[in-house]
From TrEMBL:
CDD domains: VirB11-like_ATPase. This is TadA family conjugal transfer-associated ATPase. InterPro entries: P-loop_NTPase, T2SS/T4SS_dom, T4SS_GSP_E_ATPase, TadA-like_ATPase. Residues 49-256 form the Bacterial type II secretion system protein E domain. Belongs to the GSP E family. It comes from Agromyces larvae.
Length: 302
């Protein structure tokens, strides 16, 4: 499925592959990207590989559409960018999912959680707390969210909404909805906000948004404020302190004022879980709760 990249994706606990034009291939096994000395490909070969991978995901990449994100089988996510948008040649980024998601116990054994954090998160899931998982790219947000959802009761129906499906949950009743990009004529787009509205008609016991990036935040906040507990989402942020500003920025895209975002977020989310990636690996760096400071949103560690 990944063509010449397949052996590298299967070589141990690989999470990401990066082809930077003729400069080479970098492989990330969870401790940072390292250049692979055996890879050789010139720019025409890398471009041909990008075209091939994107086509396998049902889309096309060319000068008119020079940046494309697709999902291949088993949840593999491929992103490609052509020159001159990319200044170093064709760039391919591949996110490789685990064959099976980690449990909370496995994350604790791997050092992502300590014993107290593991117990607290189990309680939060059992109590149907609404959770927001935050962190930088590649910090382990999706991994932690999947582990949390895997702790939900088998009798619960989980509806997961993602821009590109990559969340792999070890649970018997998971329904996945994936956004659709517009076709060549610019029509046919189905965004996360529309999928959220559809998901509410599917009687979810837990409503999950893989990543909040824009106007879908308004729909998620509304849903979690109207009786949909046990929900979750992820958000890009560099620290717990940065989360309020990120939510306010996304809220402005959705037409929400900062005070509206603050009041809804305080009511919608019970815990904010921030993960970080350091030299020693990924870890749950902090747990917080949203609070109001006047009319503005803040996060208080807890």
């Amino acid at each position: 499925m990944l063509g010449p990249l397949a052996p590298y994706a299967a070589d141990g606990p690989v999470t990401d592959l990066f082809v930077n034009g003729e400069a080479g291939l970098w492989v990330d096994r969870g401790a940072g990207a390292e250049r692979h000395p055996a890879w050789r490909a010139d720019e025409p070969q890398v471009r041909a590989l990008a075209v091939q991978l994107v086509a396998r995901g049902g889309r096309h990449i060319d000068e008119a559409t020079p940046a494309v994100d697709v999902r291949l089988g088993r949840g593999i996510r491929v992103h490609a960018v052509l020159p001159p948008i990319s200044t170093i040649g064709t760039v391919i980024s591949v996110r490789v999912p685990r064959a099976a998601g980690f449990s909370l116990a496995a994350l604790a054994r791997a050092g992502m959680l300590d014993g107290a954090q593991e117990a607290r998160l189990r309680t939060a899931v059992a109590d149907r707390a609404n959770l927001l998982v935050t962190g930088a790219a590649g910090s382990g947000k999706t991994t932690l969210l999947a582990a949390l959802l895997g702790e939900a009761s088998a009798s619960e129906r989980i509806v997961v909404i993602e821009d590109v499906a990559e969340l792999r949950v070890g649970h018997p009743h998971v329904v996945g909805l994936e956004a659709r990009q517009p076709n060549l004529e610019g029509s046919g787009r189905v965004g996360l906000d529309a999928l959220l509205r559809e998901a509410l008609r599917m009687r979810p016991d837990r409503l999950v948004v893989g990543e909040c990036r824009g106007v879908e935040l308004r729909e998620l906040l509304s849903a979690l404020n109207t009786g949909h507990d046990g929900g979750a989402g992820t958000l890009h942020a560099n620290s717990l302190d940065d989360v309020p500003a990120r939510l306010e920025a996304l809220g402005s895209v959705a037409g929400l004022t900062p005070d509206a975002v603050a009041r809804q977020a305080v009511s919608a989310f019970d815990l904010v879980l921030h993960v970080e990636r350091a030299a020693g690996g990924r870890r749950l760096a902090g747990i917080g709760r949203f609070a109001l400071e006047g009319d503005r949103l803040a996060v208080a560690p807890c």
